Amino acid sequence: MTTEIVGTDAGDARVTWHPAPKPRLVLAVSHGAGGGIEARDLRALAEVLPAHGVTVARVEQPWRVAGKKVAPAPKTLDVGWRGLWPALAAPGLPVISGGRSAGARVACRTAVELGAHAVLALSFPLHPPGKPEKSRAEELLGSGVPTLVVQGGNDPFGKPEEFPAGDFEMVEVPYGDHGFTVPKRAPLGQDEAVAIVTDGVVKWVGSLG
To answer: Which part of the chain is the KANL3/Tex30 alpha/beta hydrolase-like domain (predicted)?
Structure first.
């Protein structure tokens, strides 16, 4: 594991690399507006994917590196992601653009422009909680590349059944909330829930050309 500071027009970002022994892809994955790269799903992907030929780059966006507690506007998030891309593409491998929540939106919005190989959208915030009329489905449907959505069955930002039909794949984490936390009364444990995430992503990356 190595850490790299990358300057962007939105400020310095920090990339934590988890190299695969025999890499064929890079997964660049960023956090949401309310958390960091220590989110359980991002940690789990960094632990599991390198054995499957995927180097994982966990990306801390400039606003987090600067110590701010509130994410900037979407346009500023996109500026930071664009600035990071040359470093993410430096290994010379196809790059899967990924993120959780707000980071997933960034990945979808910029995928075609940056030449992403695919998009991994963890806990895509389809709408603000309680406001299904404010849909962000166009961002997801407009990614323009193979896209996998991993969504909690009880995500207040959009349950799997709320998503429109479209050219993307979906893995549901039963009973999971926006952070894939499952209630103690659920018939599956927290480790099982995280395994659904990693197993689904491993299967999907294996299907990518």
So the answer is: 26-205
- Yes or no: say if 178 and 159 are a contact pair by the CB < 8 Å rule: no
Residues in CB range of 83: below 8 A, 6 or more apart: 6, 7, 8, 9, 10, 13
DSSP 52: G
**Is 2-207 assigned to CATH 2.40.10.240?**
no
d(CA 204, CA 98): 13
Q: Determine phi and psi for 59, rounding to 5 degrees.
A: -110, 125
CA distance 150 to 172: 6
Largest Cα–Cα separation, the chain: 46
E-assigned strand segments in the chain:
2-8, 11-18, 25-30, 54-60, 95-100, 118-122, 147-152, 169-173
| 81-95 per-position pLDDT tens digit | 999 999 999 999 999
Other Cβ atoms within 10 Å of 174 Cβ, number: 15
Q: Shortest CA distance to 105 belongs to which of 82, 137, 128?
A: 137
Coil/strand/helix, residue 15: strand
